[in-house]
Amino acid sequence: MKAPWKDGVWVAARIFVGLVFAYAGFAKLLEPSANFEATLLRYGVLTPASIPWIARIVPWLEWILGGFLIAGYAPRLTSVGTAALAVSFLATLTSSKLFLESGTSDCGCFGGGGLHLSLHQIFAVDLVSLAICLRLAALKRFPMSLHSILLKEKG
After folding, report:
1. Which of 34, 63, 77, 89 has minimal Cβ neighbours within 10 Å of its Cβ?
2. pLDDT tens digits, 79-137
3. How many C-beta neighbours within 10 Å does residue 69 have?
4. Where in the chain are the domains?
């Protein structure tokens, strides 16, 4: 017999990850892209030529994928996309000298205002987000989601 509370746990987890990503993207979209470019440059992992493109694309991806997770739109595809972003963030962090040396400086992941997390804290958030997204991608049902409404799922 399936425990009904499990659906609620995964709904909450989906919305949590969606809120984190949507907030991070939206906070960066409110600022000039040069601010995020400076943050990316500080990590010292990406080529300087790629940074302007990444600084313009990533906030939109975070915001859109986060919104899709919150709404539960195309949840499997959205979870896979969000997991891919989390993997890229984790790879960037672990490759960064900043992370290896101290880990205490602000990650810059949520723009200049609002939420400030250290590199180690955001690493933990990204790791949890990755785990949640991988599990969400494997689910068969998505209660309380736009997906279930569009497919007229029961429950």
Report:
1. 34
2. 999 999 999 999 999 888 877 777 667 888 888 777 888 888 999 999 999 999 999 99
3. 30
4. 5-151
